Amino acid sequence: MWEKFLSLIVSFYEYILFLILIGISFVILLLNENPQVRSLQGDVSNIFSFVNLPKIWINDLSNVVEENTKLKEENLQLTLLNIQMKEAWLENQRLRNDLGFMDSTRLVVVPAKVLNLGISPICNSILINIGKMQGIRSNMAVISTKGVVGKTVSVGKETTLAQIFMDVNFRISVRFQDSRVFGIMQWNPNGYAEVREVPKTVNIIPGEKVVTSGYSQIYPPNICLGEVLETRPSDNALFQTVLIKPSININEIEEVFVILSDTCYEN
User: Fold this and answer.
1) Nearby residues of 135 by Cβ (< 8 Å), 6 or more positions away
2) 220 to each of 26, 73, 134, 141, 246, how far by Cα in Å?
3) Residue 219's CB: how many other CB atoms inside 10 A?
4) Considering the chain, what percentage of its residues have pLDDT values greater than 70?
5) DSSP state of 132
6) Alpha carbons 201 and 240: distance in angstroms, whole number
7) Residue 195 phi/psi, 5° resolution?
8) Is the Cβ–Cβ distance between 234 and 197 less than 8 Å?
9) pLDDT tens, 179-207?
10) How far apart (Å, rounded) are the C-alpha atoms in residues 192 and 210?
11) What mean pLDDT comes out for the span 152-180?
12) DSSP secondary structure string, 23-61?
């Protein structure tokens, strides 16, 4: 094996010697302080600088990727902060409206936050964050600034389950504001509320407001429930059924009030 190696060196000794001499020449050039040699060194460096270009390109690309990642993170943080600020502003507006409602109403009410929607398999309901500690009892009216939400049905120490008007078992006595006729409103599973057995002789028009009648030990009079959508013939030729669009979108409710008492009467 060594013989082959030595034979190879002997065969190419001229090339090997040439490479060694070139290497020595480069070392001498690099170590030389002569100004002309220094200038030559600069020219050589420029010629061979392309060797470093891939490394420079990779470093620049890596920096761009890292900077892009940081910018994405900062953008995410700003987006989340913007959402939080908007939520805070919206909550502030709602609380201002609620405060104005509490100042203007003659009802004695307790404000509450909605914790959950529809948690009970027994009825359509909301869970609110007040209970016996705040004087809440069963069968108290739950309202919002837009109208009737429902009534309390199960009261705990610090939370209360309230049946909402969208429950099929919910009933409430109502009055049509313009025509002055009374009726019982209930929720229809088809997606609207209705009042049945309204005399056909009564002229009820779309857009007419529907409010609580006051004939109740739970709901004070004149709290908004919605407005008339249309009237339909009843099975009985003497009556008609009135379809009502509720004034409240239950999915948008975040704050409500529980009526503790009315200055006209106690529940």
Assistant:
1) 110, 260
2) 102, 53, 20, 8, 18
3) 25
4) 59
5) G
6) 9
7) -120, 120
8) yes
9) 899 999 999 888 789 998 899 889 999 99
10) 14
11) 91
12) HHHHHHHHH---HHHHHHHHHHHHHHGGGGHHHHHHHHH
CA 180/CA 202 separation, integer angstroms: 9
Q: For 105-262, give the CATH class.
A: mainly beta
What tokens were used for 241?
């059924």
Instruction: Give the strand pairing for 160-164 and 147-155.
Output: antiparallel
Residue found by looking up tokens 């004034």 in the block: 247
Reduced to 3 states (helix: H, G, I; strand: E, B; else coil), residue 139 is coil
- In the chain, the amino acid numbered 232 is R
Transcribe 205-257 into DSSP letters: -TT-EEEE-S-SSSS-TT-EEEEEEEEEE-SSTTEEEEEEEES--GGG--EEE
Cα maximum dimension of the chain: 125
**Dihedrals φ, ψ of 46, to 5°?**
-65, -40
Q: Where are the beta strands (DSSP E) in 70-170?
A: 107-117, 125-128, 141-144, 147-155, 160-164
Cα distances (angstroms) measured from residue 206 to each of 62, 231, 249: 66, 8, 19
CA dist 187 and 191 (Å) reads 8
Per the structure block, which two tokens stand in for 149?
Answer: 């939400």
